[in-house]
């Protein structure tokens, strides 16, 4: 009887935690969607007023651009949440040097809009294969690169590297931005935590889910004035 009571208690607690997580998720999703919708509504109202006044189309170009940008932002929000729910890996034997070369190339494209940010790193020269989901791992690392770019509005350097350690593969994205204090670093381990006004915290949440789905973990090192390093630690997958 005591065992049944304990099992029931554990089930209730897990259900409570699950509902609390869903509550935070829905609140964050509403916040992420509401802001671009408000911008689109405001731009559309202005354009409607201009139409009624017979205004020139040239005067509306800025607001049309705003609508397109905010529509793209909404699309990204939806994609981010869909990716968060699809962190179930489809394992295959992947060439790690080729994967990192692709990540580095994409990282430089992500950072090219910020001329004061440099991306450094070199894929390992030795042949190395690992059983993993290349799409999920690549997306997780690119999310970490975006986080690093947003953490350095005044510019800096992002470094991407890898390390093989026995039965684990570590893929690290580090920056020389302002870093985080101990409290912020601890909070960053929570889903949907972000210090950015326009962020959702899904980048870290997604990376953590990818690491855990690969039997690993997400490791964060950071200190004020010393930058931040986020490492995706992956266990060797089935068949690897």
List keywords for this structure.
alpha+beta; 7 strands; 53% helix; five-stranded mixed beta sheet; Helix Hairpins; two-stranded antiparallel sheet; single chain; Heat Shock Protein 90; 18% strand
Q: How many independent structural domains?
A: 2
What's the N-to-C terminus distance?
Answer: 44 Å
Note the total helix count.
Answer: 6
Known CATH architecture of the largest domain:
2-Layer Sandwich
Radius of gyration: 21 Å
Share of β-strand residues: 15-25%
Estimate the mean pLDDT confidence. 81
Give the uncertain stretches in residue-range form: none
Strand segment tally: 7
User: Percent range for helical residues?
Assistant: 40-55%
Order of helices and strands: HHEHEEHEEHHEE
CATH topology grouping of the largest domain: Heat Shock Protein 90
Main sheet makeup:
5 strands, mixed
| The top level CATH class name of the largest domain | Alpha Beta
Which strands sit side by side, in order, in the main sheet? Answer: 2-4-5-7-6
Fourth-level CATH superfamily of the largest domain: Histidine kinase-like ATPase, C-terminal domain
Q: Structural class, please? A: alpha+beta
Principal-axes geometry comes out as globular
């Amino acid at each position: 009887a005591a065992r049944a009571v304990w099992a029931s208690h554990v089930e209730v607690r897990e259900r409570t935690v699950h509902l609390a997580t869903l509550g935070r998720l829905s609140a964050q999703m509403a916040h992420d969607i509401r802001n671009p919708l408000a911008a689109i509504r405001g731009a559309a109202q202005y354009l409607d007023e201009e139409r009624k006044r017979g205004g020139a189309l040239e005067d509306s170009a800025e607001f049309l651009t705003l609508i397109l940008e905010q529509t793209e932002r909404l699309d990204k929000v939806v994609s981010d949440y869909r990716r968060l729910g699809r962190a179930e890996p489809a394992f295959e034997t992947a060439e790690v040097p080729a994967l990192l070369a692709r990540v580095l190339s994409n990282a430089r494209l992500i950072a090219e809009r910020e001329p004061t940010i440099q991306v450094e790193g070199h894929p390992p020269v030795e042949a190395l294969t690992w059983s993993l989901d290349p799409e999920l791992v690549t997306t997780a690392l690119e999310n970490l690169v975006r986080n690093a770019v947003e953490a350095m509005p005044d510019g800096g350097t992002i470094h991407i590297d890898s390390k093989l350690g026995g039965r684990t593969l570590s893929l690290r994205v580090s920056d020389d931005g302002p870093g985080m204090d101990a409290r912020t670093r601890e909070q960053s381990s929570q889903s949907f935590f972000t210090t950015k006004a326009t962020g959702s915290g899904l980048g870290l949440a997604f990376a953590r889910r990818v690491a855990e789905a690969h039997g690993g973990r997400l490791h964060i090192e950071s200190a004020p004035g010393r930058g931040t390093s986020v490492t995706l630690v992956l266990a060797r997958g089935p068949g690897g």
